[in-house]
Write a structure and sequence with these properties.
Shape: globular
Number of strands: 25
Largest sheet: 5 strands, antiparallel
Radius of gyration: 20 Å
Number of domains: 1
Number of helices: 2
Mean pLDDT: 93
Order of helices and strands: EEEEEEEHEEEEEHEEEEEEEEEEEEE
Length: 407
């Protein structure tokens, strides 16, 4: 069934903006709820609660696949079919709305809590090589950790299998927990692989987000063979993990390349404080010493500071959270008004968050309500937006196609 939605919010949202909007920016924010940390002050105007677009778009939605297992990620194959990962450990190819048999050869995953089979991405030469990359919570003798593997996807009639499976990155140290694995995979034009790795959530390991001798809470940057990528900032530093690109991150489940080839990401904050960042080499993004938002208990995080000369400010943040998962930059003919906009899946906001950008500045924010947790978001070869939703209680997912109403 197709339904049409108009994106708008009540004017009351303007009353909740953290500072007065400029005269030409009197449109309200899409966020109407009070912040969890009302006494925190943005570092600059427009860092949070950007106004709505001047002319909110109408969209139409239709379910193109349903009855799927609980998914974590999807990727379009060159022929338009979808390669999806199911959190419990299976991988499927979805054609005409129907998942094929589980793909053979996927390694064992630790599917407890937030762990499981996570992201998937195609190599740039997939059409010739069949190479894919996938991340998962890897079970280990003393716990688990985020692992990145590559393999060759081989199809034989109606069945498919992974061959030559090889782990090319294994997060260290091992930790016995079930939260904050990350992880999104982005392959750039030079075949460099970017991987986001969570800080494992608990109070003891999360401080390692500040330690370059640990992979926790980092952006990882490696080659297709698993070697540290040229230009990584800590390659020659004693005691540092050479795969690290940036540090001080919490748990990132949204990442994408911009049309200009820059790596961007959105990381989960605590209770408030989801962050949009464009991480640069060797820079520190603060967690858990500097952050917006508060602990889930309502207490301050650490000393409760939001700014520090040694750490980077987020380009944009949300309080309350959107709970970001999945990300893409829009390029296509379906929504020309959104050209270059950032699309982010919202688990808590139950829809797709849309950010209109001017360089590093968020000019406006809009939302596509889907009334379901969005685990991943992609732009299809047809220019439509595809959102992977999940129902944790039922352990199921659907894939929704978002178009202009007259499409």
């Amino acid at each position: 069934m197709t339904r049409s939605l108009r994106l708008s919010v009540p004017l009351a949202a303007a009353m909740l903006a953290p500072f007065p909007l400029m005269a030409q920016e009197t449109r309200p924010s899409v966020e109407t709820a009070a912040p969890n940390a009302p006494d925190q002050t943005p570092a600059f105007e427009g860092q949070t609660r950007a106004p709505q677009p001047a002319e909110p778009l109408e969209v139409a939605t239709e379910t193109v696949a349903q009855g799927l297992p609980q998914l974590w990620a999807m990727e379009f194959l060159p022929d338009g079919r979808m390669l999806v990962t199911a959190k419990k450990g299976d991988m499927h190819i979805v054609a005409d709305g129907t998942p094929g048999p589980a793909i053979e050869g996927v390694p064992e995953v630790d599917a407890d809590g937030q762990g499981g089979l996570l992201d998937v991405a195609l190599a740039n030469d997939f059409a010739d090589s069949g190479i894919i990359y996938f991340s998962y919570a890897e079970p280990r003798e003393d716990g688990n950790g985020t692992a990145l593997a590559k393999a060759r996807l081989v199809e034989d009639g109606s069945t498919a299998r992974l061959e030559d499976v090889e782990v090319i990155f294994a997060q260290q140290p091992t930790y016995d927990g079930n939260k904050h694995f990350g992880s999104r995979i982005v392959v750039d034009a030079d075949d460099v692989i970017w991987l986001t790795v969570g800080e494992r959530s608990d109070e003891e390991p999360r401080v390692q987000a500040q330690d370059v001798g640990s992979h926790f809470g980092k952006v990882i940057r490696i080659t297709a063979e698993g070697d540290p990528a040229e230009g990584n900032p800590f390659i020659d530093q004693d005691g540092a993990m050479p795969e690290i690109w940036s540090l001080g991150h919490r748990n990132t489940q949204s990442a994408a390349l911009s049309p200009e080839g820059e790596f961007w990401m959105v990381e989960h904050g605590p209770k408030g404080g989801d962050e949009l960042n464009r991480p640069e080499a060797g820079l520190n993004y603060g967690w858990p010493e500097v952050t917006y938002g508060v602990e889930y208990s309502g207490e301050e995080v650490g000393e409760g500071i939001t700014q520090n000369a040694e750490t980077q400010q987020p380009l944009y943040y949300w309080d309350p959270v959107i709970a970001p998962s999945g990300m893409a930059f829009y390029e296509g003919e379906e929504f020309p008004e959104w050209d270059g906009a950032i699309l982010i899946g919202g688990l808590v906001t139950q829809g797709v968050v849309v950010l209109g950008m001017d360089g590093d500045t968020v000019e406006w924010e809009d939302r596509i309500p889907l009334e379901a947790r969005v685990r991943d978001v992609r732009v299809g070869p047809d220019g439509a937006i595809y959102a992977v939703t999940e129902n944790r209680d039922e352990g199921s997912s659907t894939i929704v196609r978002i178009t202009a109403p007259d499409a």
